[in-house]
Amino acid sequence: GFIMSIEEDLEEVRQMCEYCDKCSLCKSRTNIVFSGGVPNHNMMLIGEAPGYYEDQKGEPFVGKAGQLLDKIFASVGLSRQKDVYICNTLKCRPPDNRDPLPEEKEACRAYLDAQIEILKPKIILLCGKVALSSMLNTSTGITRVRGQWFDGPFGSKMMPIFHPSYLLRNDSHEKGSPKWLMWQDIREIKKAYDALVCSNG
Ligand code: URA
C-alpha cells in the first residue's frame, strides 16, 4: 500500500546504501554497515564509521569499542537488543580506520538524515567527535560539550558522549577521567530514557 511501515522505509534506504557509489569508499568496502539494535522512536546512537570487524560483518559496533559500548549500556540496564537503534555517520569503512573525509560525510549524509526522519527518535546520542561535528555543526571539542542536551531534529534532544574507543585509550577510572564522566552521562541518559518510556508506554 501507500502507507509503508518504519521497517519497510528503513529497508528501502538500506538498499540504496547497498548500491551506493557516491564516494570512493564503495570500492574498498566488504559490506555496508547500515544499522544495528532496534528501530524505535526512543533512542538512536550515531557513531563514526565502520571499522574492520564491522565491515566484515555488516553490523555496527561489533569490535572492541562495540563490546565496551554494550557494557556501558548494560551498566544502567539498557541494551541494543531492546532499547537503542545504532547507526554511523558513514555506512562504509574508511581504509585503515582513518577519519572520514568531508566529501565522504557529505555523500553519506542523506542516508543518516533519512534514518533520523523515518524513526524520529526522541533521544539522539552523538558518539564521538565525528557524529558531534556532523549533527551540531561545531568544531568544539567533545570534552567541552559531552553530557549536555542540545535541541535536535524533529523535536529530539541530542547528547554528545565520548566514543568508546577513546575510553579504551584512556583507561583511568579516577574522578573526572573520561570513563568516570561517561558513567555520569549514561546515568543521565537512562533517566531521560525512563522518563520517555514511562510517558509513551
Ligand atoms: N566505531 C564506530 O564509530 N562505529 C562502529 O560501528 C564501530 C566502531
Biggest sheet, open or closed, and with what strands and sense? 6 strands, mixed
| Chemical compounds bound to the protein | uracil
Strand content: 5-15%
Low-confidence stretches: none
Structure in words:
With 201 residues, this protein is α/β, with parallel strands linked by helices. The chain contains nine helices and six strands, in the order ααββααβαβααββαα. The protein has a six-stranded mixed β-sheet. α1 packs antiparallel against α5. The longest helix has 23 residues, at 178-200. It is globular, with a radius of gyration of 16 Å. The two termini are 28 Å apart. The structure holds uracil (URA). Residues 33, 47-51, 54, 60-61, 63, 65-66, 88 line the site of uracil (URA).
Question: What layout of secondary structure does this protein have?
Answer:
Layout: H1 6-18, H2 25-28, E1 36-37, E2 43-47, H3 52-57, H4 64-74, E3 85-88, H5 102-119, E4 123-127, H6 129-136, H7 142-145, E5 150-151, E6 157-161, H8 164-169, H9 178-200
Parallel strand pairs: 2-3, 2-4, 4-6
Antiparallel strand pairs: 1-3, 5-6
Helix pairs in contact: 1-5
The structure holds uracil.
List keywords for this structure.
binds uracil; 201 residues; globular; single chain; 11% strand; 46% helix; six-stranded mixed sheet; alpha/beta
